[in-house]
Amino acid sequence: MTVTVDDRIEREVYVPAPIDRVWRVLTTPEHIRAWYAPGGCEIDPHPGGRLRFRWDEHGEFHGMVERAVPDALFRFRLALEPDHAPSDPGEATLVEFALSPEGRGTRLRFAESGIRALAVPDDAKAKHAEYATLSWTSALEELAAIAAASHN
Q: pLDDT band at 85, cuts 50/70/90?
Protein backbone atom coordinates (compact mmCIF):
# COMPACT_ATOMS: atom_id res chain seq x y z
CA MET A 1 0.00 0.00 0.00
CA THR A 2 1.32 3.44 -0.94
CA VAL A 3 0.90 6.27 1.54
CA THR A 4 0.74 9.78 0.14
CA VAL A 5 2.46 12.30 2.38
CA ASP A 6 2.08 16.05 2.09
CA ASP A 7 5.44 17.75 2.46
CA ARG A 8 4.02 21.13 3.41
CA ILE A 9 1.16 22.42 5.53
CA GLU A 10 0.08 25.98 4.80
CA ARG A 11 -2.43 28.17 6.55
CA GLU A 12 -3.24 31.86 6.39
CA VAL A 13 -5.25 34.07 8.69
CA TYR A 14 -6.16 37.75 8.87
CA VAL A 15 -5.70 39.15 12.37
CA PRO A 16 -7.55 42.39 13.17
CA ALA A 17 -4.61 43.68 15.23
CA PRO A 18 -1.46 45.70 14.53
CA ILE A 19 1.58 43.76 13.38
CA ASP A 20 3.64 44.52 16.51
CA ARG A 21 0.90 43.01 18.70
CA VAL A 22 0.69 39.90 16.51
CA TRP A 23 4.50 39.56 16.74
CA ARG A 24 4.36 39.80 20.53
CA VAL A 25 1.65 37.12 20.76
CA LEU A 26 3.62 34.93 18.35
CA THR A 27 6.98 35.14 20.11
CA THR A 28 6.55 35.64 23.87
CA PRO A 29 6.25 32.70 26.28
CA GLU A 30 3.24 34.01 28.21
CA HIS A 31 1.23 34.30 24.98
CA ILE A 32 2.54 31.06 23.43
CA ARG A 33 1.23 29.23 26.52
CA ALA A 34 -2.25 30.48 25.68
CA TRP A 35 -2.37 29.70 21.97
CA TYR A 36 0.00 26.76 21.50
CA ALA A 37 1.92 25.15 24.37
CA PRO A 38 -0.20 25.14 27.56
CA GLY A 39 2.52 23.38 29.54
CA GLY A 40 4.77 26.38 29.00
CA CYS A 41 7.65 27.31 26.78
CA GLU A 42 11.11 28.75 26.75
CA ILE A 43 12.16 30.77 23.75
CA ASP A 44 15.14 32.77 22.60
CA PRO A 45 13.71 34.40 19.45
CA HIS A 46 17.09 35.05 17.80
CA PRO A 47 18.89 33.01 15.12
CA GLY A 48 20.50 30.01 16.81
CA GLY A 49 18.26 30.49 19.85
CA ARG A 50 16.72 27.43 21.48
CA LEU A 51 13.05 26.87 22.06
CA ARG A 52 11.06 24.35 24.03
CA PHE A 53 7.32 23.82 23.92
CA ARG A 54 5.62 21.70 26.60
CA TRP A 55 2.38 19.76 26.75
CA ASP A 56 1.45 17.57 29.72
CA GLU A 57 0.06 14.90 27.39
CA HIS A 58 2.82 15.02 24.71
CA GLY A 59 6.05 16.00 26.48
CA GLU A 60 8.57 18.71 25.65
CA PHE A 61 9.47 19.49 22.05
CA HIS A 62 12.79 21.16 21.26
CA GLY A 63 13.67 23.45 18.42
CA MET A 64 16.10 26.03 17.14
CA VAL A 65 15.37 29.44 15.69
CA GLU A 66 16.69 29.88 12.15
CA ARG A 67 15.49 33.41 11.48
CA ALA A 68 13.65 36.09 13.43
CA VAL A 69 12.85 39.44 11.86
CA PRO A 70 10.63 41.41 14.27
CA ASP A 71 7.18 42.14 12.85
CA ALA A 72 7.96 40.15 9.68
CA LEU A 73 9.29 36.57 9.94
CA PHE A 74 9.77 33.86 12.56
CA ARG A 75 11.28 30.56 11.34
CA PHE A 76 12.44 27.59 13.41
CA ARG A 77 13.15 23.87 13.24
CA LEU A 78 10.96 21.77 15.52
CA ALA A 79 11.73 18.21 16.60
CA LEU A 80 9.39 15.45 15.54
CA GLU A 81 9.89 13.51 18.77
CA PRO A 82 9.48 14.81 22.33
CA ASP A 83 12.39 15.25 24.70
CA HIS A 84 14.93 15.20 21.87
CA ALA A 85 17.00 18.10 20.53
CA PRO A 86 17.14 17.61 16.76
CA SER A 87 20.62 17.42 15.28
CA ASP A 88 19.72 16.10 11.84
CA PRO A 89 17.24 17.47 9.24
CA GLY A 90 15.42 14.11 9.30
CA GLU A 91 14.50 14.72 12.96
CA ALA A 92 12.69 18.05 12.56
CA THR A 93 10.40 20.07 10.34
CA LEU A 94 10.72 23.73 9.40
CA VAL A 95 8.03 26.00 10.84
CA GLU A 96 7.60 29.51 9.47
CA PHE A 97 5.35 32.44 10.31
CA ALA A 98 5.38 35.41 7.91
CA LEU A 99 3.61 38.63 8.90
CA SER A 100 2.62 41.52 6.67
CA PRO A 101 0.46 44.58 7.30
CA GLU A 102 -2.98 44.48 5.71
CA GLY A 103 -5.31 47.42 6.22
CA ARG A 104 -5.59 48.01 9.96
CA GLY A 105 -4.56 44.45 10.73
CA THR A 106 -2.03 41.77 9.91
CA ARG A 107 -1.90 38.92 7.42
CA LEU A 108 -0.26 35.90 9.08
CA ARG A 109 0.97 33.14 6.79
CA PHE A 110 2.07 29.85 8.32
CA ALA A 111 3.90 26.89 6.80
CA GLU A 112 5.39 23.68 8.16
CA SER A 113 7.59 21.90 5.65
CA GLY A 114 10.09 19.07 5.39
CA ILE A 115 7.62 16.36 6.36
CA ARG A 116 8.70 13.97 3.57
CA ALA A 117 12.35 14.29 4.67
CA LEU A 118 11.61 13.02 8.19
CA ALA A 119 13.50 9.83 9.02
CA VAL A 120 10.39 7.82 9.90
CA PRO A 121 8.14 5.46 7.88
CA ASP A 122 5.66 7.03 5.45
CA ASP A 123 2.66 6.15 7.62
CA ALA A 124 4.25 8.07 10.53
CA LYS A 125 4.90 11.05 8.22
CA ALA A 126 1.27 10.98 7.08
CA LYS A 127 0.06 10.76 10.68
CA HIS A 128 2.25 13.74 11.62
CA ALA A 129 0.94 15.79 8.66
CA GLU A 130 -2.66 15.01 9.59
CA TYR A 131 -2.21 15.84 13.27
CA ALA A 132 -0.13 18.96 12.56
CA THR A 133 -2.72 20.26 10.10
CA LEU A 134 -5.44 20.08 12.75
CA SER A 135 -3.34 21.40 15.62
CA TRP A 136 -1.83 24.32 13.67
CA THR A 137 -5.24 25.33 12.33
CA SER A 138 -6.60 25.46 15.87
CA ALA A 139 -3.48 27.23 17.22
CA LEU A 140 -3.61 29.94 14.55
CA GLU A 141 -7.28 30.62 15.27
CA GLU A 142 -6.42 30.97 18.96
CA LEU A 143 -3.40 33.18 18.24
CA ALA A 144 -5.56 35.48 16.09
CA ALA A 145 -8.24 35.72 18.79
CA ILE A 146 -5.68 36.53 21.51
CA ALA A 147 -3.93 39.16 19.38
CA ALA A 148 -7.25 40.77 18.44
CA ALA A 149 -8.34 40.92 22.09
CA SER A 150 -4.96 41.82 23.61
CA HIS A 151 -4.36 45.35 24.84
CA ASN A 152 -0.84 44.98 26.25
A: confident
